[in-house]
Amino acid sequence: MKAIRIHKTGGQDVLKFETLETPICQADQVVVNIKSASVNYSDVLIRKGDYPYMPTFPAILGNEAAGIITKVGSAIKHLKVGQRVIAFGGPAYATEAVVKASSIIPIPDAVAFDEAAALPIIYLTAYHMLHSVRRVTAGETVLVHAAAGGVGTALIQLAKIANITLIGLTSKDAKAAVIKEMGYQHVINYKTEDVVARVNEITKDKGVDLIIDCIGGPRFDANFKMLATLGHIIWYGIVAGPPSTDFKVALGSKPHKCHSVSMFHLYGILNNPALMMASFKTLIGYLLSGQIKPVIHARLPLSEAGKAHAILENHENIGKVILKP
Ligand SMILES: NC(=O)c1ccc[n+]([C@@H]2O[C@H](COP(=O)([O-])OP(=O)(O)OC[C@H]3O[C@@H](n4cnc5c(N)ncnc54)[C@H](OP(=O)(O)O)[C@@H]3O)[C@@H](O)[C@H]2O)c1
Q1: For the purposes of burial, counting CB atoms within 10 Å of the CB of 97, is it exposed (0-12), middle (13-18) or buried (19 or more)?
Q2: Which end of the chain is less enclosed by CB atoms within 10 A, N or C?
Q3: Model pTM?
Q4: Does the Cβ of 271 fall within 6 Å of ligand 1?
Q5: Average pLDDT across the chain, whole number
Q6: Pocket test for ligand 1, best of 43, 53, 130, 239 (most atoms within 8 A of CB)
Q7: Best substitution site from 122, 132, 167, 171 to test ligand 1's pocket, by max atoms within 8 Å of Cβ?
Q8: What was the pLDDT predicted at 292?
Q9: For ligand 1, is residue 149 a contact (CB within 6 Å)?
C-alpha cells in the first residue's frame, strides 16, 4: 500500500509518500480500499506538532476516508466485502486502511465517496454545535468565524434546515461573495471592516444568539461585545492560539446579560457511540435528500498531500480539500 506518513513534526516536507506493508487485519477490524481521504486543519496542526492529541510517530495522517471493504475480520458479522463505507478515525492518507469495525459507517450507493469522506468531522462538528451544545431555535442569529472553511460551509446547509440566520466572517472579499451566494445572509470581511459595529448594525444592537469561534487568540474578547442577552459562545479551535480572554472579567462584568461560553471537541461525541451513530444517520439522510452537500474546494492525488496542506495553511479553501489515492 501507499501512504503519506510523518516521522517528525515540521513543514510540508515532512509529509513522506511511502510504500508500506498492509497491516494484518485483526478479528475486530476490516480493510478498506480508500477512494477519498479528507484533509482537515487538525492534520496540519498534527504535522506542525501543535495539536493537543498527537499520534505516535511514524504516523499516517488523516482521520476520515471513504472506500470499499476488501477484507473483514473473523469476529465481524455485520459488515461484508464490497460494502461502501466511511472509515472514521484514521488512518486516511493511504490507499488502504485497517480500521476497527466500530469506526466503520456504511454508506448508500447514491452517496459519492468524496462527499462521504468530507462528511464526518465538519458536519458532526457543525451539527452538534447547533443542536447538542446550544439547541438553536428557528429565527435565531448565529455569528460564524472562519465562515468559508470546512465547518463554516457545513453550517450554511444545516442553518437552512434549522431556519436560522447566519452572519459569516472571512478575510477575503472573493470568498465573501461565494459564501453569500451559498447562503450566508450577511458576510463581514474582518480584515477591512469593523466587525463589532457591523454585527450590531445588522442585529439592530440586539446582538447574536450564538457565536461559533474556532479562532481564539486576541480577537476572542470582541465576541462578548456582539452577544444578545442569554447569548452563547462555542469555542472549538485554536487557529490564532488559545483565547487571551479573562473569562472571569468577560462574563462577570455584565452579569445581567447572562452570557455563557462552552468548549466543543468532537471527541466528546465520538466517545458517545450511540449519539454519534444517531447523528450520522441524520446527516446521511440529509445527504440522500439533497439537503446537505459538502463543498469540495479541490481534489488532489494522495502524493500531493503537501499541496493540500498549503491550501489550508494559505486560507485559500472554500470548503474541503480531498486526497485521491
Ligand atoms: N473542536 C473540534 O472538534 C473541531 C472540529 C472541526 C474543526 N475544528 C477546528 O476548527 C477550525 C476550522 O476548521 P475548518 O475545517 O473549517 O478549517 P479550514 O477549512 O482550514 O478554515 C479555516 C479558516 O480560518 C480562517 N482563519 C485562519 N486564520 C485566521 C485568523 N488568524 N483569524 C481569523 N480567521 C482565520 C481562514 O479563513 P478566512 O481567510 O476566510 O478568514 C481559514 O481558511 C480548525 O482550526 C479545526 O482544527 C475543531
Answers
A1: buried
A2: N
A3: 0.97
A4: no
A5: 97
A6: 239
A7: 171
A8: 97
A9: yes
Q: Is the pLDDT of residue 23 over 90?
A: no
Whose alpha carbon is nearest atom 15 of ligand 1? 150
CB atoms within 10 A of CB 133: 17
Cell 508500506 found at: 20
**With contact defined as beta carbons under 8 Å apart, do 75 and 61 qualify?**
no
Torsion angle, alpha carbons of 247, 252, 256, 261, to 10: 20
| Residue whose CA is at the smallest distance from ligand 1 atom 2 | 265
Residue 78, C-alpha cell as written in the block: 455485520
CATH class, domain 2-119+270-324, is: alpha beta
Tell me what pLDDT residue 90 has.
Answer: 85
Give the right CATH number for 137-263 from 3.30.930.10, 3.40.50.2000, 3.20.190.10, 3.40.50.720: 3.40.50.720
Q: Is the pLDDT of residue 164 over 90?
A: yes
pLDDT, one tens digit per residue, over 287-296 is: 999 999 999 9
Is 42 touching ligand 1 by the criterion CB < 6 Å? yes
pLDDT by residue (tens digit) across 41-79?
Answer: 999 999 999 998 999 999 999 999 999 999 999 999 999
- Compute the half-sphere exposure of residue 50: CA atoms within 13 Å on the CB side of its CA: 14
